[in-house]
Amino acid sequence: MKVAVQWAQPVLRDRLACWLHRPERNWTATVAPRLVARATATDDTRWRTETVAFTSTSVAVATVRGRGADGRYVVKVPWTDQAVDGLRRQAEVLDVLRTNPRLPGLRQLLPYCAAQGEIEGRYYCVEEALRGAPANGMMLRRTRRAALLASASRVIRNLHLPTRERTMLDRAALAEWVDAPLRRLEEFVATHPRPGRLLDTVWRLREELVVALVGRTVHTSWIHGDFWPGNLLATSPAGQVTGIVDWDRAAPRQLPLHDLLHLHVLARRLARGDELGEIVVHALRHGLDRTLDVPAGEAADWLDGIPPRPALLLYWMRHILLFIDSEGDHDDPRWIRGNVERVLVNI
Ligand SMILES: Nc1ncnc2c1ncn2[C@@H]1O[C@H](COP(=O)(O)OP(=O)(O)O)[C@@H](O)[C@H]1O
Ligand SMILES: [Mg+2]
Prior knowledge:
Aminoglycoside phosphotransferase family protein; binds adenosine-5'-diphosphate; EC 2.7.1.-; 13 helices; binds magnesium ion; Aminoglycoside 3'-phosphotransferase, Chain: A, domain 2; alpha+beta; Kinase-like_dom_sf; Phosphorylase Kinase, domain 1; Aminoglycoside_PTrfase; 2 domains
């Protein structure tokens, strides 16, 4: 869900979270075999917990393996209200996508929620484990990264293309993509010690985006909404995507460019350590293809006729807004400097 704040993440951050959340992890490790047994109508003794991670969005994720050929499950227990909402929303989204007859190519990559409910007053869900290893660990080697990015760009088309529709962007359509995020950004910037210049930029941005986008006809579709390598599972070393997790930010009638930009921006972030705001500024100055190391034609395809500057700004706004409104690091001064101010003073 939420993207790493510092370069050393997600590895260091996850380690710290694990260390800090021992009681939650222990409790989850104890109940997880029972929950899998209940979901599969089998006996508790057939299941054992292998690992429990505590994620940056406060979910304890236990991997449970069966003895013999019983398979593998993932039990998720959220520990904050926002994490509960996220998992419930993901279950709803997965239901909608699984039952959509236009998405057969996607189904095998989606988590399957075998059961959800409450145990000792706490929400949980049991998912069948998808094959593959987390893809964020595959970003450091160039060839592996390229293979993973090509596979990920290909598989997400199985969501974008079958659900796409032509949409005329009128002033009302931009309320969601431009006005609402900019209002929220304005509130956020107003709390800055010297908000004047930043506020001017936010207002100028509104005008610019309205002029660039109103009257344009674009394709919209369902998007994943947090399509970064940390939410992909893939074969190693071949880098073929075997699963896509974390669907609570998915939404219909959005621009597919959000998923494709996020995938490539975060790949650069994981490989080189740059802040997202720095990458956006670099792309505004030097072009998407040079910044994200993709052929110019491929980058142009992502944008579907929208000029690169408004496309990048829409992407940036959506991303930072999701982050500002999530729990955790949004008040981290380093994050604000690198992602909000860095862009506002350079556009
Ligand atoms: N169904 C699944 N099968 C295999 N691994 C999974 C599954 N769901 C989650 N994971 C692993 O657990 C990690 C955390 O799960 P995720 O849903 O992304 O939580 P968060 O919202 O906290 O990022 C994922 O990055 C992935 O490696
Ligand atoms: Mg995730």
